[in-house]
Design brief:
With 713 residues, the protein is α/β, with parallel strands linked by helices.
């Protein structure tokens, strides 16, 4: 028998628990805490040291620890239960897709994204887009969709965030060891490794394809750090969103064109091609090329391709959409457009967009022109997107522009605290996870006794405070400095959370608009508050870095110190801890620049109400009883006026509504009953309507199945 390389690297595992290896190589464990416990219980310290990575853990763990676990009756009971659950999941016959589309055959959905946020141990994501993609793949598995996902593996990831003593962000890159992650080299039907080729100016670039199992579906990730690529090309997929425009177009060319070729080599024949944002839009050119080679015209090929393609736009500002100068496109595609039987000008016209600095080849324009199915990611964003791209549809009014909206959702099992999962098991019924998008199921939240939900939530906050203190201690140790001597965070105090990408439009510093007013709120006798911040700025976004530095420095000022903290290295672990543990989720972008946002959905799923600008998803969710709305639902011509008005609204809400409700009206056991009702309303309204189950069901019904049905057989 041939032994796989990863098996040789592992510490020998007793036969009784040998399937720990198999489980480590299926990312199903990332959304099942009980599966993670199988590794944590063997060696809790090592589990934390290896940052919750079972593949790395099984290489590092000592054999004695494994043997002790295999002889422990309690551990074996958990092991058997987890493996039974895993087998039942993988082999299930009565799945969502089979129930709703029992007669559908020969449908295959290919989903392309530049990043996938699946777990903190696989740092190949930057923020919301990647987390959404990861949740999308997990839910596709849960629903048993005929689905395959394609992206890059990024051996150096996005970046690790380090703050210097002044709070200035520096990027730290650590190369991933493929032996430490659940990556398996993809093999074609003949058993050969899959290495695809894509032509770049003056050279051929090669990308090796790796396969990741995500429950029932596969995620294919490409890596260019292989022989015989040049050092420059080896760096091509090294980092997410790195480099200049030339590297960006090279990455997107490999993602789109190379991704199609990878699927072909592996025997996939997708009927639906989903472009998640414009990064992968070059795939439509490769699909057209395949058809032109067979003897039809480009126009006929484009018409056929359009019927198969779905495009989701996420960016409500023009600057966030990739657009390349025509000379750069010419360098990269001069040998490609003849394969489409097009002239240079005909090729450029496919995605031509005039900018202030000149004509460009725009990836969003390409994706919209080459697909029949388009959507924004909230109702408000759909309206914004129709206005942005109305110029592509001459003669159509804004409302007639064919861009619909499917509001984002979150993967329930990934983001729900295990303690609340147990609570829901007890009160929502045995089948609640089979009906995640059913509002009637979630109405049972009101049957949970107030003190039970309150005590559970306060326990989660205590865990968050312990987590935050540990992160702060690690930060100061990294700086070779002593941790602050003042008390850092306190149990029992109203705790607000703000964690997201530090783009300037998200206004992380809004609450500091009036420092003296904030100090009063933080230290008000009997009704104090505290705020936990986290987030990264893009490595090239100096204004965003200044926002981080500002928060970091303010958090050390008298009157603010100890009540405000900034946590270094925002990732999925920090995101889980914060959305599960805070009392209120703060979100104050400059309306209408937030396309959707999902962090607040995760918080309300866990019973933390939102205090948010009516932007992105919140106008659809807010009902006056499940959280708070900052400011007015209006447009401003003066941003300073907008910031001032929104800050005053935020201060007023905290002082007169949020803190008062949290601290006042407590019953004999100390439970703020009015507050708990808001928490219950937040869960009952947000959990079903903004679940990934609801979102993906919408995609299947409104986009995927219509596209599949329109494919010419």
């Amino acid at each position: 028998m041939v032994r796989l390389e990863h098996e040789i690297l592992f510490t020998p595992i007793p036969e009784r628990i040998a399937r720990l290896r198999e489980l480590a190589y299926n990312l199903w464990w990332t959304w099942h805490p009980e599966a993670q416990d199988l590794y944590r219980q063997i060696d809790p310290d090592l589990w934390e040291l290896d940052y919750h990575n079972p593949v790395d853990f099984l290489r590092d763990v000592r054999q004695r620890k494994l043997e002790e676990a295999s002889a422990n009756a309690g551990y074996l009971k958990l092991y058997d239960a987890v493996m039974k659950s895993f087998d039942g999941y993988v082999g299930a016959k009565k799945t969502w897709f089979r129930k709703h589309y029992p007669d559908v055959k020969d449908v295959q959905i290919a989903y392309f994204s530049a990043e996938f946020g699946l777990h903190e141990s696989l740092p190949i994501y930057s923020g919301g887009l990647g987390i959404l993609s990861g949740d999308h793949v997990k839910e596709a598995s849960d629903m048993d969709l005929p689905f395959v996902a394609v992206g890059f593996i990024y051996p150096q990831g996005y970046f690790r965030q380090r703050l210097d003593p002044s709070g200035w962000q520096f990027a730290e890159y650590n190369k991933m060891n493929f032996a430490d992650v659940p990556a398996i080299p993809a093999l074609d039907p003949e058993g050969h490794e899959v290495v695809i080729e894509v032509e770049l100016p003056g050279r051929t670039i090669y990308a090796k394809v790796y396969k990741f199992k995500v429950g029932r579906v596969e995620l294919l990730l490409m890596d260019t750090d292989i022989h015989p690529n040049s050092p420059q090309d080896r760096e091509l997929s090294a980092r997410l969103y790195g480099g200049d425009q030339e590297m960006r177009i090279s990455q997107e060319l490999v993602l789109g064109i190379g991704g199609v070729r990878a699927l072909r080599r592996l025997g996939y024949s997708p009927t639906v091609w989903h472009m998640n944002e414009g990064h992968s839009a070059f795939l439509v050119l490769e699909l057209c090329r395949e058809l032109v080679v067979q003897g039809i015209t480009f126009e006929e090929a484009m018409q056929q391709v359009k019927t198969q393609c779905v495009f989701t736009t996420h960016t409500p500002v023009p600057a966030g959409n990739d657009a390349f100068p025509l000379p750069l496109i010419e360098r990269f595609f001069w040998s490609y457009w003849p394969q489409l039987n097009l002239t240079r000008d005909e090729f450029m016209a496919i995605a031509l967009q005039e900018q202030q600095w000149g004509p460009t080849f725009a990836m969003t324009a390409l994706a919209l022109r080459a697909s029949d199915y388009h959507n924004g990611v909230s109702k408000l964003h759909g309206h914004v997107a129709r206005g942005m791209w109305q110029w592509l549809y001459p003669g159509k009014s804004r409302d007639e522009v064919p861009i619909t909206s499917i509001t984002n959702g979150v993967h329930t099992s990934t983001w729900l605290a295990p303690e609340l999962h147990e609570l829901f098991n007890a009160y929502l019924g045995k089948t609640w996870e089979d009906n995640l998008d059913d509002p009637k199921v979630w109405k049972k939240i009101y049957q949970i006794p107030d003190d039970v939900l309150w005590n559970t939530r306060q326990g989660l906050k205590s865990e968050l405070i312990t987590f935050a203190r540990g992160r702060l201690a690690a930060h100061y140790k990294h700086l070779n400095q002593n941790a602050p001597v003042w008390p850092v965070l306190e149990d029992g105090i109203l705790t607000l959370g703000f964690a997201r990408r530090f783009a300037t439009y998200k206004r992380a510093t809004l609450i500091f608009k009036d420092i003296e007013r904030l100090k009063y709120l933080l230290n008000r006798p009997g009704k104090p508050i505290q705020i936990i911040f986290a987030g990264k700025a893009h490595p090239k976004d100096d204004p965003g870095k200044l926002f981080i530095q500002n928060v970091y420095q303010l958090a050390q000022q008298p009157g603010l110190a100890g009540r405000i903290v900034f946590l270094e290295e925002y990732d999925m672990a920090v995101g889980r801890a914060m959305t599960q543990g805070v009392d209120v989720w703060l979100n104050n972008p400059r309306r209408p620049y937030e396309a959707s946002g999902t962090s607040g959905m995760k918080a309300s799923l866990n019973g933390a109400p939102n205090c948010s600008i009516l932007d992105g998803w919140w106008p659809e969710a807010y009902n006056g009883k499940n959280g708070w709305a900052i400011g007015e639902e209006r447009e401003y011509s003066n941003q300073d006026e907008q910031d001032w008005n929104d800050a005053q609204s935020l201060y007023h809400l905290i002082e007169h509504e949020i803190a008062s409700t949290f601290y006042d009206g407590r019953d004999a056991s100390g439970v703020p009953t009015a507050w708990v009702q808001i928490c219950k309303e937040a869960i009952a309204t947000v959990a079903p309507a903004f679940s990934m189950r609801r979102m993906l069901a919408d995609y299947v019904r409104e986009l995927y199945m219509p596209a599949a049905a329109s494919v010419t057989k």
